[in-house]
């Protein structure tokens, strides 16, 4: 962006740890913007954030900030309940929105946000960062190569430490891999689900789910997700099975593409690497200076700002949120669980 081009005027809503330690810094990768103000109900967090990042205006009420500041867009990272309130108010104030997942508590709220998005014509984006995670983007690109033969089977694991509640675990955790499956395969329909629960104490819920589905393209898949692991251990995995080959993404930072050999080898002889048939491997170097995370947040921010500057509508948006939230409803219905509106 040249110096004579008007910068986008951006506001920050939510100055907690994720925003302070990581999300705000992702703006450095995007085209330059002018951050006018920040908002948080916790004045100590607000003082720390605005002081550290030299933000000129500070608010404890986002509605007041929307009324007083000439904002083009906001970046919002709080919790699903407040994401809904903030995104709704921003769109109705004529402001574009990047909101962290999950942007609401239930499907009804997602449908309302979509209706407001369509009514106001605002540009919205939801932070399902797996769509921008380096290894998953690579996996999708490989799976679309003609030689891969299409994705026929999908299997993923996404585990976590204990959550405060089962509802929060599904809404904040399982939803990531529902969206990942949709990103890789298109729309999916759940076919079977199983659930286990360990002994629960207040504020300490340990549940596990195995969820089977079929995609519109005919692929079958399963997602295993539980809150019974320690997050210090590797907790995320994806395998895509094509025609005589597969892609495995292990714990975000390692990808292996196993390809069929063009001819049978004599196993008792030494042999050279077959460039057209042996496995391709990618993993990020931890020896490099850690300027970039590969978790997708940086690319997500670049994509959102670029979309605003160039008048494009980014994805995922609230239409995607509606489809993904409905999968949570289907899961609850399949298991006979009465969904709750909050947690």
UniProtKB/TrEMBL annotation:
<protein>
    <submittedName>
        <fullName>Gfo/Idh/MocA family oxidoreductase</fullName>
    </submittedName>
</protein>
<dbReference type="InterPro" id="IPR000683">
    <property type="entry name" value="Gfo/Idh/MocA-like_OxRdtase_N"/>
</dbReference>
<dbReference type="InterPro" id="IPR036291">
    <property type="entry name" value="NAD(P)-bd_dom_sf"/>
</dbReference>
<dbReference type="InterPro" id="IPR051317">
    <property type="entry name" value="Gfo/Idh/MocA_oxidoreduct"/>
</dbReference>
<comment type="similarity">
    <text>Belongs to the Gfo/Idh/MocA family.</text>
</comment>
<feature type="domain" description="Gfo/Idh/MocA-like oxidoreductase N-terminal">
    <location>
        <begin position="8"/>
        <end position="128"/>
    </location>
</feature>
<dbReference type="Pfam" id="PF01408">
    <property type="entry name" value="GFO_IDH_MocA"/>
</dbReference>
<keyword id="KW-0560">Oxidoreductase</keyword>
């Amino acid at each position: 962006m040249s110096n004579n081009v008007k910068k986008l005027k951006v506001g920050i809503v939510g100055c907690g740890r994720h925003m302070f330690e990581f999300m705000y810094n992702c703006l450095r990768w995007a085209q330059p913007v002018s951050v006018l103000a920040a908002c948080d109900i916790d004045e100590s967090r607000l003082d720390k954030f605005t002081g550290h990042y030299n933000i000129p205006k500070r608010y404890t009420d986002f509605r007041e900030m929307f009324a007083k500041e000439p904002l083009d867009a906001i970046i919002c990272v709080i919790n699903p309940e407040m994401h809904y309130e903030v995104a709704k108010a921003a769109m109705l104030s004529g402001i574009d929105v990047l909101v962290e997942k999950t942007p609401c508590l239930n499907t009804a709220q997602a449908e309302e946000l979509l209706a407001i998005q369509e009514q106001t014509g605002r540009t919205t984006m939801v932070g399902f960062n797996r769509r921008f995670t380096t290894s998953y983007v690579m996996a999708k690109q490989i799976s679309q190569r003609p030689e891969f033969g299409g994705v026929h089977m999908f299997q993923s694991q996404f585990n976590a430490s204990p959550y405060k509640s089962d509802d929060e675990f599904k809404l904040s955790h399982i939803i990531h891999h529902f969206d990942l499956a949709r990103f890789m395969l298109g729309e999916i329909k759940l076919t079977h689900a199983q659930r286990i629960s360990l002994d629960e104490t207040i504020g300490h819920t340990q549940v596990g789910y195995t969820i089977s589905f079929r995609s519109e393209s005919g692929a079958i898949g399963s997602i295993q997700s539980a809150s019974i692991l320690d997050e210090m251990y590797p907790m995320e995995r994806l395998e895509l099975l094509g025609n005589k080959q597969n892609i495995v993404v292990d714990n975000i930072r390692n990808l292996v593409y196993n390809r069929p050999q063009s001819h049978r080898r004599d196993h008792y002889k030494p042999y050279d690497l077959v460039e057209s048939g042996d496995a391709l491997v990618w993993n990020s170097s931890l020896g490099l200076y850690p300027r970039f995370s590969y978790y997708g947040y940086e690319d997500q921010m670049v994509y959102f700002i670029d979309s605003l500057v160039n008048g494009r509508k980014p994805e995922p948006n609230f239409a995607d949120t509606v489809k993904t939230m409905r999968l949570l409803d289907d899961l609850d219905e399949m298991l006979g669980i009465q969904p709750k509106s909050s947690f």
